[in-house]
Design goal:
- The protein has 232 residues and is mainly α.
- Among the domains are: 107 residues, no CATH class; 40 residues.
- The chain has 9 helices and 4 strands.
- A two-stranded parallel ribbon has the order 1-2. Strands 3-4 form a two-stranded antiparallel sheet.
- The radius of gyration is 32 Å and the shape is extended.
- The N and C termini lie far apart (82 Å).
């Protein structure tokens, strides 16, 4: 019973609490804040490309996608790849997170936002602190209140649900010949020649023709005809 309860807990920290949580809290998941992890990591491995590679590996949700992201990081800098391999993926990558917690948070922004919200009541006695939190939460609920939908609406919305499927990024990596795209056959006939137009060319209509309009002169035209001119 205790193991089932603890398996649904997750500690998200940026401090050196890995041995402490491992020795005192069994069956509890321990994660590292990726933002703070990258803050220490970029001191040794700076660069925008390495940052994108690290966050791509951290945000990956499947094992094949995580493997490809780590291979890309290894191509950029093998030393950085070795340092990230020293950390177990279940501490910083979504691909290895436990499904019991039902939480995919990778940064402790929630804790920072909570500390910022209770900043007004933190230095007060315990009774005043609890009353202040109660006042804050009730006002928050009222401000964020929205009209509730009926149960039938939720059922109708999810009635014709199309289950998502993995794309090429989620395919397993196998040692086989890569599948090439089909050969594009050339259509019969002479191909079109696209003329490069400059900026000072006249505007064209939907059919590729120049726009024109018929105008009539106010002066007396001895011939009595109208002229058709091209707009610039």
């Amino acid at each position: 019973m205790v193991s089932n309860i603890r398996s649904g807990l997750s500690f998200l920290t940026s401090k050196g609490l890995v041995p402490t949580i491992a020795s005192t809290s069994d069956y509890v998941e321990h994660r590292l804040c990726v933002k703070h992890l990258y803050g220490n990591w970029r001191k040794k491995y700076p660069g925008d490309e390495l940052k994108k590679a690290l966050w791509a590996a951290a945000r990956s949700t499947t094992i094949p996608e995580f493997t490809r992201a780590m291979d890309n990081l290894k191509k950029l800098t093998e030393a950085a790849w070795k340092d990230m391999c020293d950390l177990t993926p279940d501490m910083w990558s979504r691909a290895a997170f436990s499904t019991h917690t039902c939480c995919d948070l990778q940064v402790n922004n929630m804790c920072e936002a909570f500390n910022s919200a209770i900043l007004e009541y933190r230095d007060k006695p315990i009774i005043s602190l609890v009353e202040g939190l109660k006042f804050y939460m009730t006002n928050r609920i009222v401000k964020l209140r929205d009209y509730m939908l009926r149960k039938t609406t939720f059922l109708d919305t999810s009635n014709n649900l199309i289950r998502p499927s993995n794309g090429p990024k989620g395919w397993p990596i196998v040692d086989a010949t890569q599948i090439a795209p089909p050969y594009v056959r050339r259509a019969p006939g002479r191909p079109k020649k696209l003329r490069r137009t400059s900026n000072n060319c006249a505007a064209t209509g939907p059919r590729g023709l120049k726009k024109s309009a018929r105008i009539a002169t106010n002066a007396v035209d001895p011939i009595g005809t109208q002229q058709s001119v091209n707009k610039p």
